[in-house]
């Protein structure tokens, strides 16, 4: 079933959450901002471009859902099932993914700035600076810059200076070796979707 924003709002405001099931429904480009959707099922649903800003999604399930370019800014996704979900191009800025299940998920081009990872497929490094650090099996995000891990180790001072100025260069000179050591000694687990074709 395809929902309008008005229909969705009515369901969320007037329904018993224990009876709501959005599996395989089309909820593309709708907003769930700020709602408590804990425990709800969205398995196989189409949620491309959907907004979950500040939404509580603890123990909810999005198995196999399409979440291309969706927005999870500051969402709470503790123990959320995202296995096999297509999160390509999604915004996970400041989202909390503690305990989230990401096996088989497509994380290509996701924005991970300030994201708290699940300590498996998305890892977080906590260095007390203004530069949040998050990485997957093949990408490393430092503040707003996201590049393949191998590229980071090849960047010289000019590259870093161009990216973020003198403060970034100072940070990189001080922390590059530590960051590399952590990433290499505690690599993120692949989701199993790396390198596959994807529709965005």
Keywords:
200 residues; alpha+beta; Pectate Lyase C-like; four-stranded antiparallel beta sheet; 7% strand; elongated
Structure at a glance:
This protein has 200 residues and is α+β, with helices and mostly antiparallel strands.
Overall residue-averaged pLDDT value: 93
For the secondary structure, the number of strands is 4
Number of domains: 1
> What is the percent of helical residues?
10-25%
Largest beta sheet: strand ordering: 1-2-3-4
Residue runs with pLDDT of under 50 for 5 or more positions: none
Q: Element order, helices and strands?
A: HEEEEHH
Q: What profile does the largest beta sheet have?
A: 4 strands, antiparallel
Helices, by number, come to: 3
What can you see in these coordinates?
With 200 residues, this protein is an alpha+beta fold. Helices cover 22% and strands 7% of the residues. It has one domain (1-200): E3 ubiquitin-protein ligase SopA (Pectate Lyase C-like, 3 Solenoid), CATH 2.160.20.80. The longest helix is centred in the C-terminal third of the chain and has 29 residues, at 157-185. Strands 1-2-3-4 form a 4-stranded antiparallel sheet. It has helices spanning 5-14, 149-154, 157-185, and strands spanning 123-125, 133-135, 139-142, 145-148. The mean pLDDT is 93.
